[in-house]
Design goal:
The protein is mainly alpha-helical. It folds into 3 domains: 3-44; 59-152, Type II secretion system (T2SS), domain F (Receptor-associated Protein), CATH 1.20.81; 153-400, Type II secretion system (T2SS), domain F (Receptor-associated Protein, Up-down Bundle), CATH 1.20.81. Helix content is 74%, strand content 5%. Strands 2-1-3 form a 3-stranded antiparallel β-sheet, covered by helices on one side.
Length: 400
């Protein structure tokens, strides 16, 4: 049975310290109360258990869990019973094990926010902060509902973005495969046929290029593949370092067309998270800290943290955001007006909706243009290979 160290006062006000054996912290508190002691601190000597690592839980499942918990609590079901029901009825083994641990922590005396915060690798930081604000403000059910809505909205935007890019990426993969098969397996069959023209120096430059590329790929293909794998592994290793992550964050914002879209999505994500947290009563400094991590962009997160330092010194939010140079002028102006009108959370949510809608339209238009461009590039490369092979044939036939 675990041993708890306690600091308490007796009925005379004298401070006492000691150890007590109990199954849980709540049981230890009950034993101290039975001895007419008023506990000041009760801590376990046992080392804290490491948070259970589970595989990724799908966002729709998390959203459904938040919504179901809100419905159960709104119907009058006690919190522990609600957590027990959710844990028993979920079919995702990882989520079931996490909910079981959350149940045990709440049973031991932790608040729901603290228990959820122990598993930020599963739930994220925002739900714990919103749940804490809901518990302190007396609107826990509403906070859970909003967390579910936010999780659904973010997952929907992510799925639409990935779905829009799926077909162009498929075209690119097919194009590379087709061209590779042509050059490696089809082109070499013409090499002996063009031998005489090559000896006389009459082989067209385009044909020489295609034949040379084919020879290099056949002779050094495995080496090239190995080098490519090595480069990928090296890049992955560098991206795990602070310098590599910062370099990639700066590089991707400079990619033509894609860079501005990525930045706008990050700004929209920041506005949505910050507005949701403020709307649920989370203090602005804590909200900025959480929303900076939720942007998914290190450059933008650094600018937000710098703005947080200025806000803690008493400055408004709009000025530091404008000074960073990463926020559109329209967004900064709307935030400045909202701060003066004291409706910042509402304006931030409106900004997020507008930016996501506009960014989605730009992304959809870009994808529509990307598809014919990739088809033209693929057709052009295949046509180049065919012409390079036909030109010597036509030249030989004219000579004959």
């Amino acid at each position: 049975m675990p041993t708890f160290h306690y600091i308490a006062r007796d009925s005379a006000g004298q401070k006492l310290t000691g150890n007590i054996s109990a199954a849980t912290q709540r049981e230890a508190l009950a034993q101290l109360a039975g001895q007419t002691l008023f506990p000041l601190e009760v801590s376990s000597d046992a080392p804290a258990a490491e948070p259970r690592r589970v595989r990724r839980v799908p966002a729709p499942l998390l959203a459904a869990t938040y919504s179901q918990l809100a419905d159960l609590l709104r119907s009058g079901v006690p919190l522990l019973r609600s957590l027990e029901l959710l844990q028993k009825h979920t079919k995702h083994k990882g989520l079931a094990s996490v909910l079981e641990d959350v149940y045990r922590h709440v049973e031991d005396g932790d608040t729901l926010a603290d228990a959820v915060g122990r598993f930020s690798h599963v739930f994220g930081e925002m739900p714990a902060s919103m749940i804490r604000a809901g518990m302190e403000g007396g609107f826990l059910e509403e906070a859970l509902t909003r967390v579910a809505q936010f999780t659904d909205a973010q997952d929907d935007l992510k799925k639409r973005t990935v779905g829009a890019l799926a077909y162009p990426l498929f075209l690119m993969a097919v194009g590379v495969t087709v061209v590779g098969v042509l050059i490696v397996f089809f082109v070499p069959k013409f090499e002996d046929l063009f031998g005489q023209l090559r000896e006389r120096g009459e082989l067209p430059a385009a044909t020489e290029l295609i034949l040379g590329t084919s020879a290099v790929l056949r002779g050094y293909g495995l080496w090239i593949l190995g080098a490519a794998v090595g480069v990928v592994l090296l890049v992955r290793h560098q991206l795990r370092t602070e310098h590599g992550r910062m370099f990639w964050a700066q590089l991707r914002l400079r990619i033509p067309l894609a860079g501005p879209i990525l930045l706008q999505l990050a700004v929209a994500r920041f506005c949505r998270v910050l507005g949701t947290l403020l709307h649920n009563g989370v203090p602005i400094l804590r909200s900025l800290d959480i929303s900076s991590d939720a942007t998914g962009d290190r450059i933008l997160a650094g600018a937000i943290r710098k703005a947080t330092e200025n806000i803690s010194a008493g400055q408004p939010l709009a000025g530091p955001l404008a000074a960073s140079g990463h926020f559109p002028d329209m967004v900064v102006e709307m935030i400045a007006v909202a701060e003066q009108a004291n409706n910042l959370e509402t304006v931030l949510l409106d900004i997020a909706e507008t930016m996501e809608r506009r960014t989605w339209r730009r992304l959809e238009l870009g994808v529509r243009l990307l598809e014919p461009i990739l088809l033209l590039i693929l057709a052009g490369i295949v046509l180049l290979v065919v012409i390079a092979l036909l030109m010597p044939v036509l030249k030989m036939s004219s000579t004959v």
